[in-house]
Design brief:
This is DUF3833 domain-containing protein. Keywords: Signal. The chain has 175 residues and is mainly beta. It has one domain (32-174): Beta Barrel (Lipocalin). It has helices at 2-19, 35-38; strands at residues 41-51, 56-69, 72-81, 86-97, 100-104, 108-117, 120-131, 134-148, 151-160, 163-174.
């Protein structure tokens, strides 16, 4: 019986790992993404948040302004939610290598770490949000795909205790 359980668990792990997307799969996809170029100037975004079941629980628009000096950038975001609420987030970004970035924001625990390959950036970080009036932290696995020099699609999986609790889908475009 233990042997059968081990075989089933091994097969499931192989399937899950075999289906996961590797950032390296995008290394030759163009146009190549450089955050300091795309997130420079005025942008706008439209998105939605879905819960674990896929139900849309929030819709929003974002006005973004990005500025860069050398390897240091600031991304000033203002969120306008469908329920009438607003939120401000300011990212402080640093290019630490040709394909690596770090980001900090007041509602992010520690440092967001990102790596670029081709047209794609993968960020991972812990975001502190409010849920039903209580603080709640979620780990984000954030994938940004440059469509062309002016447009980007962002897909984010949210996790709590390793369990998928939701997803964010976002379109970002230059004004």
């Amino acid at each position: 019986m233990k042997r059968l359980q081990l075989l089933v668990i091994s097969a499931m792990a192989f399937i899950v790992l075999g289906c996961s997307t590797s950032l390296d799969a995008y290394k030759n996809v163009e146009p190549h993404l450089k955050l300091e170029e795309f997130f420079n100037g005025e942008l706008e975004a439209y998105g939605m948040v879905q819960d674990y079941s896929g139900e849309v629980i929030q819709r929003f628009k974002v006005d973004l302004v990005g500025t860069w000096e050398g390897n240091e950038g600031v991304l000033d975001e203002t969120f306008y939610y469908a329920d009438g609420s607003t939120q401000k987030r300011i990212w402080y970004l640093t290019k630490i290598a040709p394909d690596r970035y770090e980001g900090r924001a007041s509602d992010v625990e520690g440092v967001a770490e990102g790596k670029v390959a081709g047209n794609t950036l993968n960020w991972t970080y812990v975001l502190n949000i409010e849920l039903d009036g209580e603080p709640f932290s979620v780990k984000l696995d954030d994938w940004l795909y440059l469509v062309d020099k002016d447009n980007m699609i962002n897909r984010t999986q949210m996790y709590k205790f390793g369990i998928n609790v939701g997803e964010i889908t976002l379109y970002i475009g230059k004004k």
